[in-house]
Structure formats: structure tokens, C-alpha cells
Task: inverse folding
């Protein structure tokens, strides 16, 4: 997105050697009314609508025991499966926000990435005419009514079991002109104290820019440190300019997880961050969006799928999906709720949660996937469960591959998963005896006419 417009298994630490050719960087009109404690007519709080499912996470989240993924307060793995409604706090009414939240919950998203403040113009009011500061742009003088509305949305998300990842400001926009050394700690302290009881909140500092480009790194740290002091249980990260937060802040005490923003092959930075010490979860916070092509490359559903599967099989704790006009909630956002990319993202989330994804350890040295991996934008990405029970191999295009089945325990059942239709097809020759190498070739096309598939290998079946 740019203004242009464990508890359960210890992962094995691998030494990463990048393969030659790998990239160097890795319509409904709704009523508007003044918000009240009960919300405007028709905006019933989520808690009053239905009981949450038993699998709803218990917030807050934290890093797992091995540091590579998130768990909830009950030590259950939490998949960071995010959508990016960056403008939800000021672009939508409460009725509209509930419409959005319920749709994303139904699709299986677990996380929302949002801006706390209007973007790109700082003087934009929310749907109820409320500015975030009074007087405007004075970041030491928050307007309580604006932030009350923000909390209302956060609480509804919590009732649905949704994590809200909030950018306290966004450097790429007007806020870099108004946040300064005299108000940075005041603002950070206010947010930390104001939202410390919201257990489903994590923070995304920065915003499309590297430190010291438009905002001094010391100011970034001022906000982050005050947030950490007031709410140490709320994890934080940093959103830079097409890099990972680890570039600048990996050893900062307040940084709880790394975030990658890249338009390149998404697995590269994930593989790098996986091996850093101290170990911290890494997520793909932004890459190419559906219907948007900031890097001049494809903005279609195939790219969205490729990014997500690449990232997860490289050892990530999760990935974010984006869509234009959804990210800025412009005209057509209601229709975009059910876009092709959103449906495929929902399939991705269900696919990962069907199995213990958190046990996966990536295979960058091609110990499992011994031939056919290729490189760069056509790379296949493989990962093996740390107990040898299953493996996943994502292929962005069809080709014959060779797999060392000796890395799995016992006879292996092999199936091809169509990431566009959520169907399986038994691979030729399955089940395959273990302890030998086997060749696999996917069907030529999936249901969408593309040729990406996931090879699912399950031992002992």
C-alpha cells in the first residue's frame, strides 16, 4: 500500500544459503449518526448477536516458546492471517465497520492492519465529524470522542476473536510534519495508557518509510518506548520502506516481532529473519495488493496467493492480504469484500489451519525438494514438519519436481491441493514408499486457469 493512489514443537534452526538467482531482498448505503456508548441504530454490538466459537483466541498474543510464531494467552498457536482495512477507524460508520468485521471473520481472517489516524491528510474527520486532535494536528491534545470510536471498533473485533494491528501514525503522509520531539512521548504515552486494556491490540510503528528519511529514528523510538512502558503485553513492530523491521530495530526491547514489506520474492527476507538472534516471529505485513501494481508487476490473485504460500513455507508466523479499493475503503469496497483474491486468501487460511503449520521448518537448501525448485519469481518453496509427519511444497508454476521422501516417516500419501478451489487430487503413484526419492508433476491447470498448486505429503497414511 502506497500513497500512489509452544508450546507445540521446537523448530530446527537452519543456516541459510541463498540459492543462485534468488532475489537479494526478499453496495449498501448505511445510516450515519453520532456514536454513543450503544452505537447508532442498527449497530448492535457483536456480543449481542451470537456466541463466539470455542476456537476464538484468548488475547493477548505473544511469541511462542521457540520464538518463531505467535500463541495466545492459553499457549495455542495463532496464525497471523491479516487483511488491510487501513482506514476503518475514520472511513467507516459503526454499522459499516460491523459489516466489514463480520465478513472477514466469516472468511477466517484473524487480524486487521489499520491506521489509528487519518491518512494521508491529517485534518480528515471520522464518519461522525470528529477530528483526532483538538486543535487539529496537535498530537499532544487527543480528542477523546475520536478515540472512543476507535475503541468501540477494537472491542467489536475482540468479540469476534480478531487481532487489531494498529499504526499509531504513518510517516508517509501528513503526520511526519506534526509528530515531533516535544510531543512524541506524550502521544505514545497517551495511546499506551488509553488502550492498554484492549488485549487484542498490537502496534505497527513507522509507515512506508525507513527511519531518518522523513522522521528521525529517535522519535520513532520515543513513541515505541512509551507504548511499551504503558502496555508491555501489546507486541510492537515497524513498517519500513520495502525492508524488514529487523534492519534497524531487531535488538530493541520494544520490538516483539519483525514485519517485512517487499515487492520482491517474499520468502527472501523471511528466511533471513528466521535465523536472527534473539529469535522473534516474522510476518509479511505488505507486498503486492490485488488490483494494484505499485511495482509495475502483476496485481492479480495469482500473485496474492504466491506471496502468502511462499512466506508461510519460508518460516513466517503469517501474512497480510491487500486489495484496492479495500485498503483505503473507497468506492466499491463492499463489493471487494468478496473479491477473487479475498476468497483465495480465505482458502489459504483454512488450508494452513487444517494442519499444525507451526511445526513447519523451511527447506531453503533443498534437502527435501532436491530438484525442480528453480529460483527467483518461479521458486518452489518447501517446508517439512519438525517431526517428519508431513511436508508442503508450493509451486507457482507447473513442473516436475523430485522429493526425498526419506525425510518423512513411513509410507507417504501425496495429494495436489488447488489453492483456488480448495480441492485435492491424489498424486500419481500415491501412496509412495518412504526412504526414497520420488518425482511428482502437478495437473497442468488449477480451477482458475493458473498452474500453481501445493503438494501435500503426509506420512503414515
Result:
Amino acid at each position: 500500500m502506497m500513497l500512489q493512489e509452544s508450546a507445540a514443537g521446537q523448530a530446527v534452526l537452519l543456516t541459510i544459503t541463498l540459492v543462485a538467482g534468488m532475489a537479494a531482498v526478499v453496495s449498501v448505503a448505511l445510516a450515519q449518526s453520532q456514536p454513543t456508548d450503544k452505537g447508532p441504530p442498527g449497530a448492535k454490538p457483536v456480543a449481542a448477536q451470537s456466541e463466539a466459537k470455542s476456537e476464538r483466541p484468548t488475547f493477548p498474543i505473544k511469541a511462542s516458546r521457540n520464538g518463531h510464531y505467535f500463541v495466545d494467552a492459553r499457549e495455542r498457536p495463532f496464525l497471523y492471517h491479516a487483511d488491510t482495512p487501513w482506514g476503518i477507524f475514520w472511513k467507516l460508520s459503526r454499522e459499516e465497520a460491523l459489516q466489514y468485521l463480520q465478513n472477514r471473520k466469516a472468511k477466517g481472517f484473524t487480524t486487521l492492519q489499520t491506521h489509528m489516524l487519518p491518512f494521508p491528510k491529517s485534518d480528515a474527520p471520522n464518519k461522525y465529524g470528529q477530528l483526532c486532535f483538538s486543535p487539529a494536528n496537535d498530537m499532544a491534545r487527543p480528542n477523546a470522542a475520536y478515540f472512543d470510536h476507535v475503541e468501540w471498533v477494537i472491542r467489536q473485533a475482540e468479540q469476534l476473536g480478531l487481532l487489531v494491528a494498529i499504526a499509531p501514525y504513518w510517516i508517509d503522509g501528513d503526520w511526519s510534519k506534526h509528530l515531533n520531539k516535544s510531543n512524541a512521548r506524550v502521544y505514545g504515552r497517551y495511546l499506551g495508557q488509553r488502550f492498554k486494556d484492549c488485549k487484542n491490540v498490537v502496534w505497527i510503528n513507522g509507515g512506508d518509510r525507513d527511519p531518518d528519511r522523513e522522521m528521525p529514528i529517535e522519535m520513532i523510538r520515543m513513541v515505541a518506548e512509551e507504548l511499551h512502558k504503558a502496555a508491555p503485553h501489546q507486541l510492537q513492530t515497524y513498517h519500513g520502506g520495502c525492508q524488514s523491521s529487523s534492519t534497524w530495530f531487531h535488538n530493541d526491547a520494544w520490538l516483539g516481532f519483525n514485519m517485512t514489506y517487499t515487492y520482491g520474492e517474499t520468502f527472501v527476507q523471511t528466511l533471513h529473519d528466521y535465523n536472527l538472534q534473539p529469535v522473534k516471529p516474522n510476518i509479511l505485513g505488505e507486498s503486492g495488493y490485488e488490483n494494484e501494481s505499485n511495482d509495475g508487476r502483476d496485481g492479480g490473485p495469482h500473485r496474492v496467493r504466491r506471496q502468502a504460500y511462499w512466506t508461510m513455507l519460508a518460516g513466517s508466523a503469517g501474512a497480510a492480504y491487500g486489495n484496492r479499493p479495500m485498503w483505503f475503503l473507497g468506492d466499491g469496497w463492499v463489493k471487494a469484500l468478496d473479491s477473487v483474491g479475498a476468497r483465495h486468501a480465505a482458502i489459504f487460511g483454512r488450508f494452513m489451519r487444517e494442519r499444525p503449520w507451526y511445526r513447519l521448518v523451511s527447506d531453503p537448501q533443498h534437502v527435501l525438494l532436491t530438484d525442480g525448485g528453480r529460483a527467483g519469481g518461479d521458486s518452489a518453496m518447501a517446508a517439512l514438519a519438525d517431526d517428519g509427519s508431513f511436508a508442503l511444497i508450493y509451486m507457482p508454476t507447473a513442473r516436475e519436481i523430485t522429493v526425498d521422501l526419506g525425510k518423512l516417516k513411513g509410507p507417504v500419501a501425496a495429494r495436489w491441493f488447488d489453492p483456488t478451489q480448495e480441492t485435492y487430487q491424489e498424486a500419481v503413484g500415491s501412496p509412495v514408499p518412504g526412504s526414497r526419492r520420488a518425482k511428482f508433476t502437478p495437473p497442468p491447470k488449477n480451477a482458475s486457469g493458473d498452474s500453481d498448486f501445493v503438494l501435500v505429503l503426509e506420512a503414515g497414511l
Q: What stands out?
A: The longest strand covers residues 412-418. The chain has two domains: 55-358, 363-459. The CA atoms of residues 156 and 456 lie 36 Å apart.
